[in-house]
Amino acid sequence: MTRILIADDHELVRETIASYLQNTAGFQLFQCPDLNGALAKIAALGPFDLVLLDYTMPGMNLPDGLNAVIEANAPMPVAMISGTASPDIARRVLEAGAKGFLPKTMASETLISAVRHILAGDTYTPRQFLESTASHPDAPHLTPRERDVLRGLCDGKSNKEIARDLDLQEVTVKLHVKTLSRKLDARNRTHAAMLGRDLDLI
């Protein structure tokens, strides 16, 4: 069975991606929250068929962090995933030796296609993303209450749980989630949580 390691310090995002790849494509997924964890997993279990590294997790940097994992996982491929990195960063990642750059905003079906592409020995380059000259927009202004709700989303809590924690009506939380999604240009609550973390909004 194909073994994939995903290293990302955002538990909700990491588990969402891992669960999708495992349940939809049948890959065997392993997880860790940071660069040191990834290196420890590789040392303990041997090279994975593919390692996916989050660009903003603890310990990660260019080119040293990426090179360390590439060397440890050789000869198998290593790719980078990110929700906020600019096209310039993506180009640097590929130039540094990564076998792919996967924006977290890509469609689920495209994610699996990209992973299969890399596993087949090719390099995945998101051409439309790389040709874009615009990086992620500046972080939007959030009210203190919106940040509280966003923190709840990042913890994987439901609207009802967030409402109870903040002593709010559930309908009020729903409105905040809708506003957060609009301000962050997020497709759903998981995407909003991912962007909020990557933009240091919590």
TrEMBL record:
Positions carrying 4-aspartylphosphate: D54
Domain HTH luxR-type intervals: 135-200
SUPFAM superfamilies: C-terminal effector domain of the bipartite response regulators, CheY-like
Gene Ontology terms for molecular function: DNA binding
Keyword Amino-acid biosynthesis: no
Domain Response regulatory as annotated: residue spans: 3-119
This protein's UniProt keywords: DNA-binding, Phosphoprotein
GO process terms (BP): phosphorelay signal transduction system; regulation of DNA-templated transcription
Protein name per its UniProtKB record: Two component transcriptional regulator, LuxR family
Organism of provenance: Thalassovita litoralis
Organism lineage: Bacteria, Pseudomonadati, Pseudomonadota, Alphaproteobacteria, Rhodobacterales
